[in-house]
Amino acid sequence: MKDFLNVLGKVFLDTDFLNFKKISIHEHYRSGGNIESFIWAMRILNIEKAVFLPTDWPPYNPIFKNHLYRLFDFKKKFGERIIIFTTCYSGDTTAAEFIEETIKNGAQGIKFIDWFYSEKTKNFIADINSENMYKVYEVANKYQVPVLLHIDFHKNNKFLNQFEEIAKKFSTVNFILAHYASCILDEKVSLSLCEYLLSKYSNVFIDISSGYGIKKYMTIVEFNKDMFRNFLIKFQDKILWAADIVIDDDPQKNFLWFVKRIILDLSILQKEYYQDILFASKEYYEGLALPVDVLKKIYYNNAKAILKL
After folding, report:
1. How many angstroms separate the CA atoms of 50 and 27, rounded?
2. Which CATH number applies to 2-306: 1.10.10.10, 3.40.190.10, 3.20.19.10, 3.20.20.140?
């Protein structure tokens, strides 16, 4: 109870967390997850809406339909707070048909996780510009919905050329590359690929979610503070915020855990110095203390425009 009161006190006393309306562009839901507690955390932290992704782990994205259909049920209960991005497996020859059907039923975007590259998945990865995926992008173009892609560019040289072909071909589709285009949590920290893609393509955006890598992200930001701050300010119109929390059946992921985890994410962007209230691994970290006008775009305005809200 003491921990609970301390965390809520931090939220309400530190009004910086409440002053900004927010839309999260990248959260995961898996069947059995405590989505009600996450919705309450959203309410506490002034998060108006969140994009929930029903993706399962590659290869094959095996039981995404279970997660997707539960999300449609929750949307009936929680309404516009829930935004659903539909998904499929990139090698499924019926992917485009399934994607179109679920958009007609209320999905507002598309997510593919298939280019999460590892030894386990590498033999199952279809090309980003495959004939099958072309059909998916055509559906995105038809309904003018955004496409969120997890692509490990740094692990396969061909991915960049394939994605650029798609970005050029489907110039009226907004593509969001997850996790700084997967550029920062590997051995070498660099934002050069992000800068290249954001500068070259008007329809390419990134989300800055760090997901399960947040502890490493905190350290990376601290030791590369100027690089991150300058980048986020320079590209403030093309950057979207999210925490990338996987809402699953893990018992530790209750209301209090969600609030702590999201506060940690917000602190990186808003604070000059902040406490690690989730891991308690270090008393203070250095944050980015971004300008208010930049935060408003990253937290809310950019997502609102892309989602056509």
Report:
1. 7
2. 3.20.20.140
